[in-house]
Specification:
Elements (H helix, E strand, L loop, with lengths): L17 E2 L2 E2 H7 L3 E2 L4 E5 L4 E4 L2 E3 L4 H6 L3 E2 L2 E11 L3 E12 L2 E15 L3 H7 L5 E6 L2 H15 L5 E7 L2 E6 L2 H8 L5 E10 L2 E11 L1
Parallel strand pairs: 4-10, 11-15
Antiparallel strand pairs: 1-2, 3-7, 4-5, 5-6, 8-9, 9-10, 11-13, 12-13, 14-15
The structure holds zinc ion (ZN) (2 copies).
Length: about 210
């Protein structure tokens, strides 16, 4: 059988596989097989979350985010991604296996995403002392303190506690998200009320208040 000779480098197909008329190396160097994305990523330094497709998510979602954005006309047989988060950017190291007209081509590459640092919605509200709900814990002092601690632990990552205020007969927890608090307290026997806290633009402003007796 006649062997193929690469018109670019003169190697034959005994020494390496061919893609069409060219040897694999020359084919790869003549036409890009894939394009890695290069974007800037919004990153919240307070909580370490990234804004990915419009939502604030933690770093574990970065891999999938990059993988979905690799563009290629060829079939990606395998993609392995590792990444490092630095002060100014995230560097992705990418290992690819592509099926290029029946020949498997491997590539190692790097992609750099510049970090655009800004507070996420939740952190900026928290910094502003904003809160939607007040959870009033009432009862014996020790019990209230224990309960406050456990609630703070359990709500972590779901919403935030802007402040804990001491009261004569217990503690007030100022909580970021009233829906999350309501879900969390479901079935606990709390008493709910909407408190009028002021007016803005001609409308009454209410604050959700949940009272829990221990
Ligand atoms: Zn060649
Ligand atoms: Zn944040």
């Amino acid at each position: 059988m006649l062997s193929k000779i690469c018109p670019a480098c003169g190697k034959d197909d005994f020494s390496l596989p061919f893609v069409g008329a060219f040897c694999r190396d020359c084919f790869v160097s003549r036409s890009p097989l894939y394009v890695l994305p290069s974007v800037s990523l919004q990153y919240c330094p307070c909580c370490g979350k990234f804004r990915l497709s419009g939502e604030w998510k933690d770093a574990s979602f970065l891999k999938g985010f990059l993988q979905q954005r690799i563009k290629s006309d060829y079939e990606l047989k395998d993609v392995a991604v590792v990444f490092d988060i630095h002060r100014k950017d995230v560097i992705f190291s990418v290992k690819l296996k592509l099926d290029v007209h029946g020949t498997i081509v491997e590539a190692n590459d790097k992609a750099r995403f510049v970090l655009d640092k800004r507070s996420c919605a939740s952190c900026s509200r928290q910094a502003g002392g904003y809160h939607e709900a007040v959870l009033q814990l009432r009862g014996p002092k020790d019990l209230v303190a224990l309960k406050a601690e456990s609630i703070e632990r359990k709500l972590k990552g779901l919403t935030f506690i802007a402040k804990v205020v001491k009261q004569k007969n217990g503690l007030d927890l100022l909580v970021g998200d009233k829906r999350i608090l309501a879900q969390f307290l479901h079935g606990s026997g709390y008493v709910f009320s909407n408190k009028l806290v002021g007016r803005r633009d001609g409308r009454n402003l209410y604050r959700a208040t949940f009272c829990l007796r221990l």
